[in-house]
């Protein structure tokens, strides 16, 4: 609980919330992690939340959004969590009333400590803005997480890019293929939680006059909005970059196949022609040189000469 | 028939509808399944429906939409039905007047019982909103069906994804190809019935003031609208995911071809070179070692040595 | 000529048009098929048409559109005609004045009889709406034609789809390729005439107040507009479906190539190894078993054994 | 110079322009081809043109646009010129004041004679609209050039299409590939000069009230606008058509490769099996029939029988 | 420092800025290159800048944007720098107050000298517009850099195009592939800094009335805006052109593979058939001509005749 912008109390039970909230000078922050149905029921009564918003918390898997109810906002955002190389977003639901902020985390993978540290690090003047200040800290943390994630993806793509053109090491096609596939899958998933953030911030900035617009917090929300747009643009360029990688890989495969075929053809010729000659000299008919020494020398010269000649000709044309 | 939000009567014939409707305190719900031309004629007269709307019911295969006529709305939506693995949407046409809701189902595959159960499960206060409440229950059920469907598709895609990278089991290319084709076809079809839902809900929320906007039902319709957007966004990410799968499969095929060619080339060389040597020793000319023991040993050593040498060289370069 | 909504006269010459038109109770419909420059000149004077609109008729190949001039509208739409399997749209230009409708068909392939039959089939009350009623009949017929066409395309795609996965009959690749090409070409052409219809109907519904908006015909035009949107949406899903077909076909080709290569490799090995053995036993050096019976049996056993062994091994790995 | 809509004087020097322009009844048209910096300097002073507009003329390579300055408009459009099969657009800059039109051509490849002939061909009444009339003539000519160009492209695509499916003549793959490449490159370039025309005409029609909107010229500009939209739509369908061609060609290549591989496999088998048999009968071991007549007949029968048998089997499966 | 549009003083320390700024007749320009945290702190106090804007400078990697704070604007743009063939954009942050312009360069790679030369080259009248004039010079330089860059890219693409169709020199597939990859990567990066410029200029032109809109500088900003649009359109056509190149290259690869396979097949046949004949004549059975002279001549004729015949047949069908 913050009072007049100053932290006053911590760790009180849900049931007391309504008491503190009654005093407009107080700003109450309440955090629930994986709450039970009952917790939510108590909360609902204490703060007068709308039934639908509470239902959304229970059912989970909402899209990032701002829902505006009488007397409170309901916001859903997703924090980034990477689980064994796979993107596993963590849902955070937020209730915003005049002087209370309730954060409901899906589970502990969303580190709320980072948010409180951010709150504490800001100097006092902004703290006077109450829930608007608290909400900003939360959103700022979430969006910075998105920014870090897209930067991380960008780095992984550059990594693959280097592998692609590294001439010293052969490419492990299977692993590369899989890495590209997984990057793209994660990007698709990330898009689902990052794109609607634009609307979330836009709604907060433009529609809800009391909370953000026209207050000293507005530039700070603008700043978060700016980061959201940066995430979006970066995401788009990342997708483009990945498509570039993917198509280049495909073209490389095609080129590689051509080269293999060229070599196959070349070596096949170098082996097949001498084989034909040995076949000729293996016939049971009295060809010139049959059974005589000069026949052997002629055949040997033919085999060696044609082999070397073909090899040189193909080498010159860059077929081998 | 509901009266002042309370269920009062069930199972009366079409002809009596106009009687009940006359009393504004009554809310009449009427359900027809695969009605005849005559049924619709009676209904049209009883409720004063517009000729064009009734024609739309008869001709069928409308797109999801809201048509606004004098004194009533005409809504078309599609329920999900999966028939032998293929998506087979079921059309449901709805007439909404001031105090009557008529649902006309294409056939029994749309389970109206689910909708009534949903109505009954809601507590009484909302029921006072009459047709608006009933319509909400129907739309909620339909959109939840869409949500389930897109979730199901998502699951099937993840399933295919696992097959794609399962290194223990060889991929049944033909079946995978077919599964991808059918998923995409179903997605295309589903899009056709799901995308216009956004407009349907949007129209109900914004334009028809008496029915939804400004009433206690508004947040509930907003909630359905939210689900519709979630379906849309999920659908988009699903399409993206499927494209990812498809292109990865294509790249795998290309990689596989390259590998097959590499191996083919390798083994061909390992067999062709000894064959050339046997050809040489099969010539009917007095080559060194012709007909003598050491000739055999030389040839045997050459054959074995070159075969093993090539094998080792190729194995080292990962060509076999 | 219709008078007060009742058909009165038929088959009078162009020159008399202005007489009939003078009486506001008359509704005149005039149909020209492939008119000469002179016919149009007379018409222009009789009805006071704008020079540019008449020029558009002469030059032909307009895009579907509504041009609004002082005292009259100029509308261009395209009827569907399929000529030897190719889409060959037929241009129909329409002049709409206060009480006259002039239809100018490019040639006889557009069956105006279908339109008059539609007019006659509607009951009398709507006929009182004069040109608005007549124009509706025409547009309704045209858009229904588009709807039929896109349905037909849909059917052809499903047909190809069945061929694609029919395992009993081999695919005639060349014919399938051509069919896909032609379907796509026709869809591109159809798009060119169907997409602008949305704007045509939209313009009629919203901008020209006297003619459609606010009259009893409005719902009927809405209905046509609805069909236009359905054509558009169906068109899009058709394009998607075709892309699905095309890409699946490509993937099948790639898979087929892989299979052919696998088998080629397998059989090549089964033949090449015994050939090597015969080569060995064909050498003119005293290998073990040279010229003796057990040498033959050993060679025969080797040849048969290795062939059968390879065949079994490849069969097990599904390489043959 | 036109006076009251009548051509009065021709071929006077730049320096006199301001004299004629002073009289509002005069309409002055001035044409410069590849002007020097000095010519433009004089012109600038005579007509009071804005420095930036003149700079744009000098620097060249502007995009098609309308710039609106105090007292004059500056318009840039591109005429079509095809140079050795490559699209080489010619820039034409236009200054429009109250009663003067200055056209500045990049070079002689833009035939201004065609524009004057168009002006002269129009009857006198429109000529009274002064610069608006002159400008229309110019834009009409330019846009008709675009229309002709896209029609020409369409024709070339249909030409390629015929080549693609002509079964009598083998396709010259290299030439086809190049033709497709060049068509697409030209389309991309053409797009760059044709797409912004929509904005140019739109700006003239809507924003600059004195010049076009509300005058008798408005329908004529609408007509040009209509052609611009037709160019755009045609361009889009052309791109689509070209993509169709390109992808079909790719699919044909894939199919062709499959066929080549099938035949290669088939013939390889037909040759390899008899070769194995001859190898068997070439062994220096007493196989049954060694050195005896019936051995020859058996081998001959085996060779011929297996060859014919394989050929028949493959032919039946359409592998050869 | 400029006073009344005239350059007066240069090279004074940050701390004095506020003094000069106090006099509204002065226009102060201040340039910082890679400033320390302290420099920015001083600057912030001197000019009363917003904390968030200064933070953006410190954190860097902003997207191009205009942020509007009380009393000053904060603008971020990117100059082009090519580092070892890779695009490496240089960030330039700009603070704009009523009579001061502060440019903060990421490092020396952005040549501010070019901007001052541009300022000095403009004649005095425009200089009277103070910061608006200075800002214009900077933006003009930046956008001209973008224009040069996209022109350079265009040139590189045309270069690759020539390589693609140069029949005299074989294509170095690997280098071409890499060049295409890198071009596309640079385009993606360039897009990220060039696309938002449209919004930057648009914001300056439309929203901030005091600075640009309604002043004599407006046409000059319009001119820069025009260049920005040209960059965008050129960028799009460049991407299209690159896609064309890429896909053509892919099709060429496919064609090349087909050709290699055709030749492989052809030569394989020419060698395999004679090999079969030598095998036949190598059998140890009394075939006709066994051990006799005419047998040799027959075999020789068969080998030579079939080889030449196959060669001629394949050559005629363009298979070799």
Automatic annotation (TrEMBL), chains A, B, C, D, E:
GO terms for molecular function: cobalt ion binding; cobalt ion transmembrane transporter activity; magnesium ion binding; magnesium ion transmembrane transporter activity. The keyword Cell membrane applies. Pfam families: CorA. Its main location: membrane. Belongs to the CorA metal ion transporter (MIT) (TC 1.A.35) family. Gene3D superfamilies: CorA soluble domain-like (3.30.460.20), Magnesium transport protein CorA, transmembrane region (1.20.58.340). The chain crosses the membrane at residues 264-282, 294-314. Keywords: Cell membrane, Membrane, Transmembrane, Transmembrane helix, Transport. The keyword 4Fe-4S does not apply. CDD domains: TmCorA-like (cd12822). GO terms for cellular component: plasma membrane. It is a multi-pass membrane protein. It is found in: Cell membrane. InterPro entries: CorA_cytoplasmic_dom, CorA_TM1_TM2, MgTranspt_CorA/ZnTranspt_ZntB. This is Magnesium transporter CorA family protein.
């Amino acid at each position: 609980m913050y009072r007049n912008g100053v932290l006053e109390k911590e760790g009180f039970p849900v049931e007391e919330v309504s008491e503190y909230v009654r005093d407009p000078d107080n700003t109450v922050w309440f955090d629930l992690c994986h709450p039970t149905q009952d917790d939510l029921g108590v909360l609902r009564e204490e703060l007068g939340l709308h039934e639908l918003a509470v239902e959304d918390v229970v059912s989970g898997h909402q899209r990032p959004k701002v829902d505006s109810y009488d007397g409170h906002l309901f916001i859903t955002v997703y924090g980034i969590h990477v689980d064994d190389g796979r993107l596993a977003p963590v849902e955070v639901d937020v209730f915003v009333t005049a002087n209370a902020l309730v954060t409901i985390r899906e589970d502990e993978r969303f580190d709320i400590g980072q948010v409180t540290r951010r709150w504490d690090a800001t100097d006092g003047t902004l703290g006077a803005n109450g829930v608007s200040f608290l909400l900003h800290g939360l959103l700022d943390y979430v969006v910075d997480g998105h920014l870090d994630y897209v930067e991380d993806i960008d780095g992984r793509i550059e990594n693959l890019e280097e592998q692609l053109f590294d001439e010293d090491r052969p490419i492990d096609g299977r692993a590369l293929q899989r890495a590209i596939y997984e990057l793209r899958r994660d990007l698709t998933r990330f898009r689902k939680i990052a794109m609607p953030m634009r609307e979330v911030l836009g709604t907060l900035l433009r529609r809800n006059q009391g909370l953000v617009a026209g207050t000293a917090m507005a530039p700070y929300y603008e700043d978060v909005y700016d980061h959201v747009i940066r995430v979006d643009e970066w995401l788009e360029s990342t997708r483009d970059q990945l498509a570039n990688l993917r198509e280049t890989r495909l073209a490389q495969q095609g080129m590689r196949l051509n080269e293999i075929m060229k070599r196959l053809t070349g070596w096949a010729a170098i082996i097949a022609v001498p084989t034909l000659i040995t076949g000729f000299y293996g016939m049971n008919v009295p060809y010139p040189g049959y059974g005589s020494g000069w026949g052997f020398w002629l055949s040997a010269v033919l085999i060696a000469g044609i082999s070397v000649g073909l090899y040189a000709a193909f080498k010159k044309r860059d077929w081998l």
